Amino acid sequence: MLDRKFILENLDLLKTNIANRGMQVRLDEFVQLEGQRKALLQQVEALRAEANMLAKSSAAVEDKRAKGQQLKAEEAALTEQLKTIEAQAEEIYLTIPNLTAPESPAGGEECSLDIARGKTPIREFDFPIQDHITLMERHKMLNLAAGAKVAGSGFYYFTGAGALLELALTRFALDHIMASGYTPVITPDLVRDDLMVGAGFVPRGNESNTYRLEGYDLNLIATSEITLVGMHADEVVDLTQPIKYAGLSHCFRSERAHGSATRGIYRVHQFTKAEMVVICKPEEAEDFHLELRRLEQEIYDALEIPYRVLEIAAGDLGAAAYRKFDLEAWMPARGGLGGWGEITSTSNCQQFQARRLNIKYRDEAGKLQYAATLNGTAVSVCRPIIAIVENCQQADGTIIMPKALQPYLPTQYWVLK
């Protein structure tokens, strides 16, 4: 979240920013409520000051008692009004998005800019291309029918080479980012409501894409970003060196799209993900954002997957993100004709999450400041697997695993026949 004083002093900037993001926020109502809140606070403070003066006065005991009870009753009534106003203001406050980087293009998803390409060119095939479902079922890597039988549409089983490929991908990615100082962490798959909200995710409501456990203050996480930043809620962290995590977790998303471009394992309800999270000083955030993007590109260059880098438009940013890059892989059979599909994202959230979660550090003068948080996908296994099997297929239906993954696989799985 943004500082309340900053919001009230920069209303035109905030309204423009909200409009550029295509969001609906009751900002004028928030301003009105903030005014009421401040007025009520002043009244409460005035009553307390009067009560203090009364206690020190020379008035008769009975008179002091009667007046004191009256002041307490008035204060209690105002305090109840204040709680109501504060709750209403807080509800709106939590919907106000982060500011947007000047580099982010205006407009919606279609306005995101293609700013770079990976080292591997798009492959020209001289034989009919098969999609990942056909290839993976042929090689007994994937069982969609069994997943649907036990959990419903959008779930799956990785079997044989599919299971080993998931393990190989996650370990390869972890090894790569650990070499840059990221500490591996296996996080809980469940998180409390308040930490979901603090990280910028809404655990309830029609726009929520998360699963909530009825009867419990718990949610299945959509990404380990939530649990990694949540681990430091209400802490003063030591940022002499930045905190750099490589989180491994299952992720759960309730949304399920339909259509040829999202068939198979492109959009599923559960998947394994290795996520990078950085907690640093605000002035370091931009450099770490570029580091996260570099690490993502290095991973997919090593896997020899064709990809493009997008500068995400303002209208497609999450509420917490100040600036965001996506990597999209070329998937030769996507939608029947081939297409780009998102495989990673990396966001600079500045102090937005830290302010909501109360994550602070001491600056050089010893003053408490809010930290900055960033996140980036190393691998979210399903979509990279689609890109690997479709790009690495051969005319005879075999699949040659990328050389970078071969050391992580038994030799008999280097070429799937």
Task: Summarize the structure in words.
This protein is of the alpha+beta class and 417 residues long. The protein has 2 domains: 90 residues, Serine-tRNA synthetase, tRNA binding domain (Helix Hairpins, Orthogonal Bundle); 308 residues, Bira Bifunctional Protein, Domain 2 (BirA Bifunctional Protein, domain 2). It contains 12 helices and 18 strands. It has an 8-stranded mixed β-sheet. Strands 5-7-6 form a 3-stranded antiparallel β-sheet. The chain has a 3-stranded mixed β-sheet with strand order 8-14-15. Helix 3 runs antiparallel to helix 4. The relative contact order is 0.14.
| Strand arrangement in the largest pleated sheet | 1-11-12-13-16-10-9-4
The CATH topology of the largest domain is given as BirA Bifunctional Protein, domain 2
Order of helices and strands: HHHHEHEHEHEEHEEHEEEHEEEHEEEHEE
What is the helical fraction, as a range of percent? 25-40%
Instruction: Indicate the structural class.
Output: alpha+beta
Query: Can you give the mean pLDDT?
Result: 94
- How many domains? 2
Can you tell me the residue ranges where pLDDT is under 50 for at least 5 consecutive residues? none
- CATH superfamily heading of the largest domain: Bira Bifunctional Protein, Domain 2
**Would you state the CATH class of the largest domain?**
Alpha Beta
Question: What is the 3D form?
Answer: elongated
Number of helices: 12
Major β-sheet, in short? 8 strands, mixed
Topology, element by element:
Blueprint lengths: L3 H6 L1 H10 L6 H30 L4 H33 L19 E5 L14 H7 L3 E2 H8 L5 E2 L2 H18 L4 E4 L3 E2 L1 H6 L13 E2 L4 E3 L3 H7 L4 E2 L6 E10 L17 E11 L4 H18 L4 E5 L11 E9 L7 E10 L3 H6 L1 E4 L5 E3 L1 E9 L1 H10 L7 E2 L14 E2 L1
Parallel strand pairs: 4-9, 8-14
Antiparallel strand pairs: 1-11, 2-3, 5-7, 6-7, 9-10, 10-16, 11-12, 12-13, 13-16, 14-15, 17-18
